[in-house]
Design goal:
Number of helices: 16
Distance between the termini: 60 Å
CATH architecture of the largest domain: 3-Layer(aba) Sandwich
Number of strands: 27
Shape: globular
Structural class: alpha/beta
CATH class of the largest domain: Alpha Beta
Helix content: 25-40%
Radius of gyration: 24 Å
Strand order of the largest sheet: 2-1-11-10-12-13-14-15-16
CATH topology of the largest domain: Rossmann fold
CATH superfamily of the largest domain: ANL, N-terminal domain
């Protein structure tokens, strides 16, 4: 099924249901579809046709949703640009995509103007927030265009979104995701729209990220009301949930922790939340245990995936978050809460060693995935594609192991695994041990070059507010609870950890800052 059919179907059965709520603006499904059609006709006037690329750089607004469906209706390819990217990265993405049209939010106009002269394929820039010199204005562009439905016959295997990776190891790569990539997930996991049902989904994950797009498409197909927030900000997020009586939310672990830690948390009524999905970064056990207690009316779901897999390929369902039963059953569920769940039904998964051989259960290796939702490749980068997709298998770059019950546990990214004296050590395991210390709020672990051991372990630690600690007591805590060779050999205390917009700790930045020089504490 084409993703454009999600909107067409819901518009046909419940046109008057609210589709989008945003800062006082409310659009029904009929209005959303009309505006998407008008924009599609406007893009046609600008020369956009099947297979052409349309870029957009904007925070979460209704225009972003409209631009996706308008582009998809034409059989063109939508290119959401990370609005946190620097000028060099933006120029690289738009130039590589050879975007014909680019829509730009007001705060990003100067940046786009600074690189525009290098973008020879870019024929038109459209200002999303009012008149701007040398740009077309979005709303006048729609005026006078037809509301008639736009139908373009394209195979469901055609690319509908060109989504760029985070670029943590070089310039971002364009991931080609098809209608099928998203359609199969949505059709198999989302209840179709019901004219009698009312459900609201707050969307704060940026729509340049695959998790945001998946949530948007799932919400549309399910006939939910998308409550958009430009960017995640507290306490505005809590105020929106209370005011709109939001039922669903997707949060990365750092967001969930920030919500619960906010001093005004108890002053908001968040009881309307019935489903909280989390993912995109590791979830500390203590954080999810606390969330289960503080949101007793909510069902929790962990979703694991990456851009190359069109988002979710593994899931830890609500039942695994219900901590009831015998002590043995609870202990097993607590263990499962440290996993990333089980592979979804339409996904094959295996764990392999460095030679590509499947390893026994419980043995760490690289996680591979295969299925119809996996990307068709990297845009104009056959070398990277051949390295990442081999024999139909997606080499995720994530390392972990599968237990006897088919739950998968991460041990880190390939480049994050620490090799000390021939032993391969997971930074995630050490971080989990450190955060179990009552004084520690967060921790990140890196390997530091060492002439004797190859690498030694350094931990970068954020203490809880008001706490003080000596490196030695945290090192001793790890020695008691882990094999001795896994304990950190040095500790650095910082106020906060560097993270990307989705909450993942940037170990690359930590290695640049702390990966050289003398150890701060040794044992």
């Amino acid at each position: 099924m084409l993703t454009t059919e999600f909107l067409n179907i819901v518009n046909a059965i419940c046109p008057d249901k609210e589709a989008v709520v945003f800062e006082g603006q409310r659009l029904t499904y009929a209005e959303l579809n009309q505006r998407a059609n008008k924009l599609a006709h406007a893009l046609t006037r600008l020369g956009v046709g099947q297979g052409d690329r349309v870029a957009i750089m904007q925070v979460n607004t209704p225009q972003v949703v409209e631009s996706y469906f308008a582009t998809a209706k034409l059989g063109a390819i939508w290119v959401p640009v990370n609005f946190r990217a620097k000028a060099e990265e933006v120029a690289h993405m738009v130039k590589l995509a050879e975007a014909k049209v680019m829509m730009v939010g007001e705060r990003y106009v100067p940046l786009v103007q600074s690189v525009h002269s290098n973008l020879t394929s870019l024929h038109h820039c459209v200002s999303l927030d009012g008149p701007t010199p040398d740009m077309q204005d979005y709303e006048p562009l729609l005026c006078g265009t037809s509301e008639d439905e736009v139908n373009t016959e394209v195979p469901e295997t055609d690319t509908t979104i060109l989504m760029f990776t985070a670029g943590t190891t070089g310039l971002p790569k364009g991931v080609m995701l098809s209608h099928q990539s998203f359609g199969l997930y949505v059709l198999n996991n989302v209840t179709p729209a019901d004219p009698e049902a009312a459900e609201k989904n707050i969307l704060t994950v940026p729509l340049y990220h695959v998790a945001g797009v998946q949530a948007m498409l799932a919400g549309i197909y399910g006939g939910r009301t998308l409550v958009l927030q430009r960017q995640f900000e507290l306490p505005e997020w809590m105020a929106i949930v209370q005011r709109e009586q939001v039922n669903r939310a997707m949060l990365v672990p750092t967001m969930l922790k920030q919500v619960m830690d906010h001093p005004d948390f108890g002053q908001y009524d968040l009881g309307s939340l019935k489903v909280i999905t989390y993912g995109a970064a590791p979830m500390p056990l203590e954080v999810i245990k606390r969330a289960i207690q503080l949101f007793p009316s909510a069902r929790f779901i962990q979703a694991f995936g990456q851009t190359e897999s069109a988002s979710t390929i593994m899931i830890l369902p609500p039942d695994d978050h219900v901590l009831t039963g015998t002590q043995e059953e609870v202990d097993k569920k607590l263990k499962h809460l440290t996993s990333i769940g089980k592979p979804m039904e339409d996904v094959e998964m295996k764990v392999v060693d460095e030679e590509g051989n499947e390893v026994p259960r419980g043995t760490p290796g690289e996680i591979l995935a295969r299925g119809p939702r996996v990307m068709s490749g990297y845009w104009k980068n056959p070398e990277a594609t051949a390295k990442t997709v081999r024999g139909g298998w997606l080499y995720t770059g994530d390392f972990g192991y599968m237990d006897e019950d088919s739950y998968v546990y991460l041990v880190g990214r390939g480049g994050d695994i620490i090799k000390r004296g021939g032993e391969k050590i997971s930074p995630d395991e050490i971080e989990a041990c450190l955060t179990s210390h009552p004084k520690v709020d967060e921790a990140a672990v890196i390997g530091v070059p060492d002439p004797d051991w190859g690498e030694v372990i350094k931990a970068v630690v954020v203490l809880k507010k008001g706490q003080q600690a000596q490196p030695q007591e945290l090192i001793e805590h790890c020695r008691v609870h882990m094999s001795s060779f896994k304990k950190p050999e040095s500790i650095v205390f910082v106020d906060e950890l560097p993270r990307n917009p989705m909450g993942k700790v940037l170990r690359r930045v930590l290695r640049e800052q702390y990966g050289k020089g003398e150890l701060f504490a040794k044992r």
